[in-house]
Amino acid sequence: MTKGKNILLMVLAVVVGLFVGGLVNMWIIGQLPNFFPYPDGLDPSRPEDIATFIKNAPIGAFVMVWLAHWGQAFFGGIVAALIAPKNKLKCALIVGLLSLAGGVAAIFMIPSPIWNVIVDLIGYLPAAWLGAKLASVLFPSRSSND
Fold first, then answer.
1. Looking at residues 98-123, what average pLDDT do you find?
2. Which one of 17, 23, 58, 102 has the fewest CB atoms closer than 10 angstroms to its CB?
3. From CA 10, how far away is CA 82, in angstroms rounded?
4. What is the pLDDT of residue 144?
């Protein structure tokens, strides 16, 4: 395979990994009100309403958000590692890093307790790493050339 084709496939791997990871994140976040109902009148599309919800949210709601964010990095990392022809771990970690960047951006849009910020941000890169490692275990024939 040519170098240009490898690079193109690695970029595609990261983009598709981010897309799939984003779907996982949105799906889990979408389930949040099923487990932890929003107060009447809360509009989840308004950051200030979400900030109000966070002030009174139970710990389970925070855990669910962590799982959504880390799930984005984890499943995105799996997909990136499976698609990339080379540098699979690097591609997965790029997905994790870009997911982390999204998490940092969210901190500025939606205020949250500092303990939640720290726990949330710590998980992205390990989740992406685990996703890449799981991909190599589940699909060993695709794990060469890394």
1. 94
2. 58
3. 10
4. 57
- Per-residue model confidence as pLDDT tens digits over 26-35: 999 999 999 9
> What are 1's two structure tokens?
């395979």
Largest CA distance in the chain: 57
Nearest to 119 by CA among 54, 70, 57, 56: 70
Stretch 31-53: mean pLDDT: 90
Average pLDDT over residues 71-91: 97
Residue type, 5: K
Q: What span, in angstroms and rounded, lies between the C-alpha atoms of 74 and 68?
A: 10
Domain coordinates of the chain in residue numbers? 59-140
Torsion angle of alpha carbons 80, 85, 89, 90, nearest 10°? Answer: -90
CA 28 to chain centre: 11
Question: What is the rounded CA–CA span in Å between residue 111 and residue 9?
Answer: 37
Burial (CB count <10 Å: 0-12, 13-18, 19+), residue 79 = buried
Q: Cα separations (Å) of 66 from 12, 80, 121?
A: 26, 21, 9
**Whole-number Å distance between alpha carbons of 93 and 76:** 9
